[in-house]
From TrEMBL:
Keywords: Membrane, Transmembrane, Transmembrane helix. The lineage of its organism: Bacteria, Bacillati, Chloroflexota, Candidatus Thermofontia, Candidatus Thermofonsia Clade 1. The keyword Membrane applies. This is YbbR-like domain-containing protein. The keyword Transmembrane helix applies. Pfam families: YbbR. The chain crosses the membrane at residues 15-33. It comes from Candidatus Thermofonsia Clade 1 bacterium. It comes from the Bacteria. Gene3D superfamilies: 2.170.120.30, YbbR-like domain.
């Protein structure tokens, strides 16, 4: 008993030293550890998906933020192996009832259990707004809608591979769905074809309803575009009369539309042999390309399904030709002939002019000018390129070809400056 009292007295007298020694040992251990593996704080690269937790039978009715930025504090070694999949961001709405106004929910960041020596210290943003509603699902009818009217003279039918689709979402929005549409285009389509189309939910006014999930999200639709049995498709053919003036040719003709639909007696339609002509288009006196609206010549017993004029464009060009002119004098320009005597060899040249044949027939040698430009040249002998111009409308220098287009020009001063010779 005496020994126990002595030990307790010793422990009491030395407790402060004992605690101080333990604290000192821990500080030494921590300092050594920190030196090898210091603590860091980092914002993770990329964003972490936000996981929403809410009661069964509810659904998120708005579109809250789906990812957040996370800041982690921990040992340096942790960051060497830390992956985004080991980080969670949770918005917990457990126990909250559906309502029209969204809840402001705090975001909480967590690390996976295997990640030791680190913790999430910040999530940005720290809160998000989430609206809860009662979840509903319902089968809705699929309707195929055409994005344009069927072609004239054709009927179009469409059959989806399935008649209904499952709509899932907030009960209020699911109830607003009047139909689920698949929109198809039949432009330039003939015969039967199958196409896969996306589905969209709309209300009674045809307005899209958002935040509703459709399963499946698309459907295969078989479309049949067939010609109506009571109409016949005919090719349009322009009818021309008259002749173009001499020197002009018709190089092309286009028209639109190129096909039309008619209804009538079988005998009258068979007599047309698959072609319907326009009223005559007169080419007499035409010298330029023109476009003309003309009616179709519809025989008795036949009716156009859609009466319309035909736009016909006739492209007309002048016949191109060439003509040679001989002995055209070479003129001088760009130098004062009062101060300089100029001789040109050759003095006359032959040229070839190309252009519209009808214009060439009216062209004379007086309309053509061949010249040499001597601007900036001094006395002496020079090789100068011949140039051309045409005064008649419809021609330019580009229409003129000079087979030998280099002339030798000799320039002599008429009053040369006397040379001063000093007396010896």
């Amino acid at each position: 008993m005496q020994q126990l009292r002595g030990f307790l007295r010793f422990l009491s007298d030395n407790l402060g030293w004992l605690i101080g020694s333990l604290l000192l040992a821990f500080a030494v251990w921590y300092a050594a550890l920190s030196a090898r593996d210091p603590i860091e704080q980092r914002r993770l690269v990329g964003q972490v998906p936000i996981e929403l937790i809410y009661d069964e039978g509810l659904i998120v009715a708005n579109r809250p933020l789906s990812a957040a930025q996370v800041t982690v504090r921990g040992l340096q070694s942790v960051f060497e192996t830390l992956e985004t999949r080991q980080v969670k961001v949770i918005a917990d709405l457990s126990g909250l009832a559906p309502r029209d106004e969204p809840y402001s929910v705090e975001l909480r960041g967590l690390l996976a259990p295997e990640v030791r020596g680190a913790a999430v210290i910040a999530v940005q943003p720290s809160r998000i707004n989430v609206q809860l509603a009662r979840r509903a699902e319902q089968l809705k009818r699929i309707s195929v809608r055409f994005e344009q009217e069927p072609p004239i003279g054709y009927t179009v039918t469409a059959q989806p591979a399935q008649g209904e689709v499952l709509a899932v979402g907030a009960a209020e929005r699911v109830a607003q769905i009047a139909e689920v549409q698949a929109k198809v285009t039949v432009q330039n389509q003939r015969g039967t074809f199958t196409v896969t189309l996306p589905l969209s939910a709309v209300d009674a006014q045809g307005r899209p309803i958002a935040d509703v999930t459709l399963t499946p999200a698309e459907v295969a639709v078989t479309v049949e575009v067939q010609q109506r049995s009571d109409v016949t498709e005919l090719a349009v053919e322009p009818r021309l009369k008259g002749d173009l003036p001499n020197g002009y040719i018709r190089v092309n003709q286009t028209w639109s539309p190129r096909r039309v639909f008619v209804r009538g007696t079988q005998r009258a339609i068979e007599a047309m042999n698959g072609v319907i002509f326009t009223e005559p288009i007169d080419l007499s006196g035409r010298t330029e390309t023109f476009t003309q609206l003309v009616r179709l010549s519809v025989p008795e017993g036949v009716t156009l399904l859609e009466p319309r004029d035909i736009a016909v464009t006739i492209e007309i060009e002048a016949v191109q030709g060439s003509r040679e002119f001989t002995g055209i004098p070479v003129q001088v320009q760009g130098i004062d002939t009062a101060d300089f005597a100029v001789t040109v060899q050759p003095e006359r040249v032959n040229v070839i002019v190309r252009g519209a044949q009808v214009a060439l027939e009216k062209l004379t040698s007086d309309d053509i000018r061949i010249f040499v430009s001597l601007s900036g040249l001094s006395a002496g002998v020079h090789q100068v390129t011949l140039q051309a111009s045409v005064t008649r409308e419809g021609f330019s220098s580009e229409n003129v070809v000079i087979p030998n287009n280099v002339a030798e020009v000799s320039i002599t001063a008429r009053n040369p400056t006397p040379t001063f010779t000093p007396t010896p």
